[in-house]
Specification:
The protein is α/β, with parallel strands linked by helices. The chain is 33% helix and 26% strand. The strands form 2 sheets. It has a 6-stranded mixed sheet with strand order 6-7-8-3-9-10, sandwiched between helices. Strands 2-1-4-5 form a 4-stranded antiparallel sheet.
């Protein structure tokens, strides 16, 4: 996966929950390799990210990912993206890591030797082969993030969406996750309050009260975010 192909488009797309608009109509095109998403709690940033992989479909307008409409071509759109949730422990379904990673390949109906080879390859890629037969509750915070990453990346999505990837990690585990993220070839969209993590990204999006409040170079957008946070 070379991480080059990225064409995400929001065309007057909006999201509503229980009759309330949580993301105002949005027109946006994304093609950068590293994109950060910031904003205060409840600003709409997680809803925005979930609209990219079809977890939230537009109440109006349209979202496409590499040409696939997330509402009418949901499965094809979802194959373009991998999503790592804020709490990776909730993402590890089976107790043994190797089995959980293999679960993501079941829909492909691969032969058992091919599944094992794919699992071994992704474990090796992220340097967690020694954790293959460990139980999820035995893993550290950083190891859980890498386990969730392996479970998602075994299906080879072009785009990886990460929700607060360094949340509640100590310095050692944070460094482990950050170094792994930096080594990814895939396109990464990261929702984060960790401004140091995303300061070197290609583009930042700032959401505030359900609207896109700023969009551009990290230094400028972070400055705008600090103004909002201190108001």
């Amino acid at each position: 996966m070379d991480g080059i192909r990225l064409d995400i488009r929001f065309e007057r797309a909006e999201a509503r929950y229980a009759g309330r608009t949580v993301l105002q109509p949005l027109d946006l095109a994304l093609s950068e390799r590293r994109i950060g998403v910031i904003g205060l709690n409840g600003s709409g940033k997680t809803t925005f990210a979930r609209m990219i992989n079809g977890l939230v479909t537009p109440a109006a307008g349209r979202v496409t990912v590499n040409g696939f409409d997330t509402a009418t071509e949901t499965e094809s759109a979802r194959r373009q993206t991998g999503f790592i949730f804020q709490n990776p422990q909730n993402q590890i379904i089976l107790p043994i890591l190797r089995e959980d990673i293999a679960l993501g390949l079941q829909a492909r109906k691969l032969a058992k030797p091919d599944v094992r080879a794919a699992v071994d390859a992704v474990l090796s890629r992220f340097g967690i082969g020694h954790l293959a037969d460990r139980r999820s509750h035995e893993l550290s915070g950083g190891e859980l993030q890498l386990a969730a990453l392996a479970s998602v990346m075994v299906t080879e999505p072009a785009i990886l969406i990460m929700d607060e990837p360094t949340n509640q990690l100590d310095l050692k585990n944070r460094r482990l996750v950050v170094e792994t993220m930096q080594g990814l070839n895939e396109t990464v969209i990261a929702i984060s309050h960790d401004l140091e993590l995303i300061a070197g990204f290609d583009r930042l999006l700032l959401f505030h009260e359900g609207r896109l409040a700023a969009d551009g170079a990290p230094a400028e957008v972070i400055r705008h975010y600090r103004d909002i946070a201190s108001a």
